[in-house]
Amino acid sequence: MLSASVRRLGPAAYAARRHAHSAALSKLLEKNPDDVVFTFSKRSAIGRVKKGQLANTSVDELLNAMFKATLEQTRLDPSKIDDICVGTCHPPSPLYVSRAAALAAGIPASVPISTVNRLCSSGLMAIRSIVNDIRAGEATLGFAVGVESMSLHPRPTPQVSATVAQDALADDCIQPMGWTSEMVAQHYNISREKQDEYALRSHQRAERAAAAGIFRDEILPLRIGEAIVDTDDTIRPGTTAEGLAKLKPVFADWGEGSTTAGNASGIGDGVALHVITTRANAEKEGLQIVAKWGGCAVAGVEPRYMGIGPVVAIPKLLQQTGLTKEDVNVWEINEAFASQFAYCMETLDLPIENVNPQGGSIALSHPLGMTGARLPVTGLAELRRRGEPVLCTSMCIGSGMGAAAIFVNEM
């Protein structure tokens, strides 16, 4: 299915417009010593919630395994790490367990660590935190991590005081995410059929990618106990339109009940990690540069329509950077629910062949803290296969926000 942009302009004109280097794009592609760059970007395989390969693996075990595997593969001297930031949402005492996992992996006690929670964007916020440390001259090299065990730490029910809950927006802010999916579907007239259509595409793309071994490019095998975890167990082969249509609504009491287990993101467990430094330091240390940081934007929306966050975050980011949609080669936009994903796709008018080309969270699942760090891993791997430069990642965020970021492939 061609996007409205392609239909309006014609394929040849759209392609010419898309590949025309704007001044902003030319500047983005420049290489300067003070650029913030990525020298390592990998993720774990994802485990299915409660029943999958990581269901009994705690957050500290996930982090510890990822730290160990990263140090082993990169041969980095851990004493040269200036800071670590971990994005995660629901484990109790996240700073304590993150710090303990780092120390147990052989990272020296001299290396500090912090945690950040901006729900679905937490992994991206960890990246942004380390990037900004480096830009401020407060660090030279850091680790940014996104991690979640939704098997062991499911979303707690938010609680606010009666005084705060009297405000309508505040009350909307703490409602279940499934409710926001139904509100988006109802308010923006996103039919069940359309949601299933977008979901089917995600399932089929991920199934094909897994069968072709494409995800091996981005997965760092982890030793968990005696097992090596290196393959996603969340993908559901054989998903069909007929099968999706038969599924009953999960939230039938809200809205029109169009959200199902087949057209919403799965719940899962996993971890992703990025090594971030300056170009000058990477060249000095002989580190291979895989990507360059291009910028980030965060924006707010009404909590009731939480899922539309990318519709405001992406234009804000493009305005900040001076880029256009046509400057972006690959988009990784989180599929929290097919209702919100469909609305974002059609409102932003993006070419579907360049968005989540190997499937998204509806197929792979959405470990909350991991996702913001996984999307650039997946998107950069796709850019390397295509030989193209620019990635935009984006996601909606619980309580009513959206975030987006630009990355430049250098491999």
TrEMBL record:
Catalytic activity: an acyl-CoA + acetyl-CoA = a 3-oxoacyl-CoA + CoA
Assigned protein family: Belongs to the thiolase-like superfamily. Thiolase family.
Domain annotation Thiolase C-terminal: ranges: 288-407
UniProt xrefs under InterPro entries: Thiolase, Thiolase-like, Thiolase-like_sf_Thiolase, Thiolase_acyl_enz_int_AS, Thiolase_C, Thiolase_N
GO biological processes: fatty acid beta-oxidation; phenylacetate catabolic process
GO cellular component: peroxisome
Matches recorded under PROSITE patterns: THIOLASE_1
Pathway(s) served: Lipid metabolism; fatty acid metabolism
PANTHER family reported in the protein's UniProt record: 3-KETOACYL-COA THIOLASE, PEROXISOMAL, ACETYL-COA C-ACETYLTRANSFERASE
Provenance organism: Exidia glandulosa HHB12029
Active site: C120, H366, C396
UniProt domain Thiolase N-terminal: residue ranges: 41-279
Keyword set, alphabetical order: Acyltransferase, Transferase
Protein name: 3-ketoacyl-CoA thiolase
Molecular function per GO: acetyl-CoA C-acyltransferase activity
